[in-house]
Every structure is written in structure tokens, then in C-alpha cells.
Amino acid sequence: MDASNAPGWFGKLPVLGDFATRRLPQDFVAAWDAWLQRGMTYSQEHLGSAWLDAFLTAPVWRFVLGAHTLDNRPWAGVVLPSVDRVGRYFPLTVCAPIPDLSFSGPALHALEQWADTLEACARQGLDPLGRLEVFDMALAQCVTPALAGHVVAGGLGEAVLHNAAFVRLERTGARGLHDLAADAGDAMLSTMFAPYTLWWCRGLDGQAGGFACHGMPSAAVFSRMLQYVPGQV
């Protein structure tokens, strides 16, 4: 296995007493952490006594960050609620740099399957009786998939034209990014959002939903992400 293709992680784990990170560059971690801290602070102030329940029941968000969002590379991964050994709450992020993303069906399916595996590994890391080495070794096997291919553009462009900062990705019966964004194109998203990010998750019924936006979501959007249910406005 090429370790350079293994995902890294950052955040809190129940088996650790503080923040930790592996296989992620310091500049990315600093920028990602700053975004999370802003969202956590805003959501705690905005949601008040409802915050803890919202955080603990938040969906597992999958994401794609276009190049030049946080650094000069595209990234993809998952972020989910977590807590450290002494009870301090903070998300766990598992991610990796990716090739320029194709919005062809095969590439989106490959990305979705990889995200499924990342999420399963990340959930293992939330076991307070688990071992850090086992979690990290399993994660290191989740090499980044090949995502190159023909880039297409389509109907999402019309939605973006009506709101160049944010667009919802909703489709009845959608089960993943391949259903939500197969009519998007990297060239279109880069042109309209520059840089763009994609965020999606699945509800308990399997329905997928999410959004695309310019840059990183604002702190207010982060707060809404905690209580988001696909298919519900």
C-alpha cells in the first residue's frame, strides 16, 4: 500500500484526552480547525441548550473541497460528531487530497463507495473501548480512489446561475452524490463558485441531500448542518 494515498484524520477520539491528527499537513489542519471552531462557537451560541443534542445527532457529512478552498489541492472526506476521553465535544474529520474530480457516474460512484468505507472506519474510532492503532491501521487501508474521467456539465448550472453563493442538492429518491450531482461539472462549479465545496449526507431512511457553495460554509450554515434532515427544507 502506498501510504501517501492513505487518508489522514484530525479531531477528538474517545480513547484520547485531547486533539490529535495523523497524515494531514499542518497548513490544512490549521485552516480546517479554524473553520470548525467558528462553526462550533456560533452553533453553541445560536442553539443554546439544544446544542448538545443537535451535535450528537448530527448527520455524518461527506465533503469535497475544490482546489484553493483551504490550500491548493482538492480534498474529500467525512466529518462526524465525536468526543474525547474527558467529555469535550468536537468533530472527527477523516479526509485525503484527491485528484481533480470528474463528475462522471463511475467517478462519483467510486467516491461514494470510498466515503462509505471512511465513514465505517470513523465510526469504529468512536468506540470508547477501541484501540487507536486498530482504528488508524484500518483507516490507512482506505486508499484514495481514482476519480479521473470525462467531466460533464448539466442541469445544476441553471440552479447555480440563480444563486452564485449557495445551491441545495435535493432529489427525491437520491441515495448518494452520484444521484445528487451527476449533472454537475467541475468546470461549471469552479466557474460559478470559485472555489467550490460540496456537502452531502444520508438520512436514516437512506435519502441523500446536501448543497454546494462558494468556499467553506459560513458559521450559520454550519449550525444548520447539525440539524439537517435530507428532504426537509
Automatic annotation (TrEMBL):
Pfam families: TagF_N (PF09867). It comes from the Bacteria. This is Type VI secretion system-associated protein TagF. The gene is tagF.
